[in-house]
Amino acid sequence: MSTAMRSAKPIKGATGDWEIVIGLEIHAQVNSWSKLFSGASTEFGGAENSHVSLVDAAMPGMLPVINEECVRQAVRSGLGLNARINRRSVFDRKNYFYPDLPQGYQISQFKSPIVGEGEVIVDVAPGEQITVGIERLHLEQDAGKSIHDQSATMSHVDLNRSGVALMEIVSKPDLRSGDEAKAYVSKLRSILRYLGTCDGDMEKGNLRADVNVSVRRPGAELGTRCEIKNVNSIRFIGQAIDVEARRQIGIIEDGGKIDQETRLYDPGRNETRSMRSKEEAHDYRYFPDPDLLPLEFDEAYVEALKRELPELPDARKARFISEYGLSAYDADVLVAERESAEFFEAVARGRDAKMAANWVINELFGRLNREDKEISASPVSAQQLGAIVELIETGAISGKIAKDLFEIVWNEGRDADPKVIVETRGMTQLTDTGAIEAAVAAVITANPDKVEQAKEKPAMLGWFVGQVMKQTGGKANPQAVNALLKARLGVD
Ligand code: ADP
Ligand code: MG
After folding, report:
1. Same domain, yes or no, for 318 and 344?
2. pLDDT of 2 higher than 70
3. Is 340 touching ligand 1 by the criterion CB < 6 Å?
4. How many other β-carbons are positioned within 10 Å of the β-carbon of residue 67?
5. Distance from the CA of 137 to the center of ligand 2, in angstroms?
6. Does the beta carbon of 21 lie inside 6 Å of ligand 1?
7. 1 pLDDT exceeds 70?
8. How far is the CA of 162 from the centre of ligand 1 (A)?
9. Percentage of the residues of the chain whose pLDDT score is greater than 70
10. What per-residue string of b and e applies to 197-236 under the rule 16 or more CB within 10 Å gives b?
11. What is the pLDDT of residue 222?
12. Are residues 37 and 144 in the same domain?
């Protein structure tokens, strides 16, 4: 880790510098068709209480049965986080009363989680990399949902979510700014999506963060933290950290002290508000769930899952740098999403890879962003973009014409063949020197005064190039135009 290069700056308070300390607890919904201890569907958006088995509704005498797929996904996630996999873990009951928790307890893992310590490498900014420690990853059940806006006199409870498997991923207090926390969550989300263990959809609440924030004098002992519950967008995580740190600094500098409490972030007012203090904290009376055996597996099970892991973002980034000669920054942008990385490789294979990266990042991603489209919905396919890159590479079209061509393909969609368009619409680059010479001669004859000026001011060359390009409808080969003009004007 290059902490020396860390860009996180201390915050200036009225009485001196302060450092922010952040640790995150991420709840990530496990990708699985059925729930952690029942066969009910995990599908999002069904009619209220349509995905609820007798186990999820906590009917008397119902017994939980562990879903092997959820265990597999948790172990794979642990491997993706370079973490220790615990061959023996235990499910505990975490007791509390809440209307959307029919059992009266949540099944979770307290003392013995399925995954222990690990680490994640995070690129915060170009050239700035930090390593964030993972404390643990454990499996637990999600709760149901109370709905208060369906009736004037009653609250409704929807148990569709009750019993869905979550992975709680707890970081060490290793983060030092909102930007670091945002980059960490993005990286974690990227790893889980590569693994296919969580879809990372924050809008649906499938990945959400409890954000623990404290402040201290640089290098001092850890301060008292506040925990901001259930922040559901990466942007809000950054904003919540910034306002919460400011609030804490204000209190301490006014001679007060921070009460350890749970708070909520309100994005509308950009402030955090107290939910409950430590005194009101639950006593969860954890104990091992007597209905479930400890979870045990052998080394062969873990090894088999390890062998089948896909290539993850860090490995793919390193390969893009060595195999295609990309910059670390370009490689980072391309590997963040698996679909983008695969799209790039399909464009780059057998072609000029740096040119392919430029076209994917600048033209394609730029256009997709402006139209708020995902890469999976791109009107231009990897084959089509590959064909455009090839046309530039072979000199058939100029970079400028290629942008027009991209535009045409974008509008005409997947059936358009870039090579055919270039031929039928006469877009090929003029490499025929005779035609370019004629255009150069015409421009020179028409502008005797400018020709005189160019002798004093060689920078005028650019103006002449522009005129010739105009004459040829942008199709002249720019290198040829340059060379001919230099010879005719006697500049270099
Ligand atoms: P709990 O289970 O009560 O929430 P933990 O000790 O497991 O408490 O910590 C939860 C999270 O809080 C972890 O992500 C940890 O890194 C973070 N954390 C702990 N102490 C601090 C602190 N002083 N400032 C900021 N974050 C902290
Ligand atoms: Mg906590």
Report:
1. yes
2. no
3. no
4. 22
5. 13
6. yes
7. no
8. 26
9. 98
10. bbbbebeeebbbbbbbbbbbeeeeeebebbbbbebbbbeb
11. 97
12. yes
- Segment among 132-141, 211-220, 419-428 with least mean pLDDT: 419-428
How do 261-266 and 226-231 pair as beta strands?
parallel
Q: Which of 106, 225, 258, 276 to mutate to test the pocket of ligand 1 (most atoms within 8 A of CB)?
A: 225
Q: What pTM did the predictor assign?
A: 0.88
Number of domains in the chain: 3
Q: Please identify which residue in the block is written with the tokens 């009736």.
A: 151
Nearest CA to ligand 1 atom 11: 23
Asked whether 170 lines ligand 1 (CB < 6 A), one says yes
User: How far is it, in rounded angstroms, from Cα 187 to Cα 269?
Assistant: 28
> In a mutational test of the pocket of ligand 1, which residue from 109, 168, 170 has the highest number of ligand atoms less than 8 Å from its CB?
170
Is residue 407 scored above 50 in pLDDT?
yes
Residues 130/136/140/142 CA torsion (nearest 10 deg): -20
Residue nearest atom 3 of ligand 1, based on CA coordinates = 227
**Which phi-psi region, left, alpha or beta, contains residue 367 (left: φ > 0; alpha: ψ -120 to 50)?**
alpha
Residues 317 and 259 in one domain: no
Cβ(248) to ligand 1 under 6 A?
no
Q: Answer yes or no: is the C-beta of 24 below 6 A from any ligand 1 atom.
A: yes
CA geometry: angle 162, 193, 379, nearest 5 deg: 115
Nearest Cα neighbor of 419 from 438, 439, 453, 393 is: 393
Q: How many angstroms separate the alpha carbon of residue 66 from the centre of ligand 2?
A: 25
Model confidence at 125: pLDDT above 50: yes
Asked if 159 contacts 49 with a C-beta cutoff of 8 angstroms, the reply is yes
CA 23 to ligand 1 center in whole angstroms: 6
Mean pLDDT of 107-120: 98
d(CA 295, CA 66): 9
* 5 occurs within a structural domain: no
Distance, CA of 93 to CA of 91 (rounded, Å): 7
pLDDT value at residue 425: 87
How far does the centroid of ligand 2 lie from the alpha carbon of residue 372, in Å?
35
With a 6 Å cutoff on the Cβ, whether 378 touches ligand 1 is no
CA distance 421 to 427: 8
Query: Same domain for 399 and 264?
Result: no
Tell me: do 364 and 448 sit in the same domain.
Answer: no
Residue 107 sits in the same domain as residue 249: yes
Domain that holds residue 317: 311-424
Q: Are residues 183 and 274 in the same domain?
A: yes
C-alpha 439 to ligand 2 mean position (Å): 73
Query: Does the C-beta of 108 come closer than 6 Å to ligand 1?
Result: no
pLDDT of residue 476: 83
Do residues 36 and 170 both lie within one domain?
yes
Whether 390 has a pLDDT exceeding 60, the answer reads: yes
What integer pLDDT is reported at residue 277 of this predicted model?
A: 83
The answer to whether 127 touches 5, Cβ cutoff 8 Å, is yes
C-alpha torsion angle, residues 252, 258, 264, 267 (rounded to 10): 10
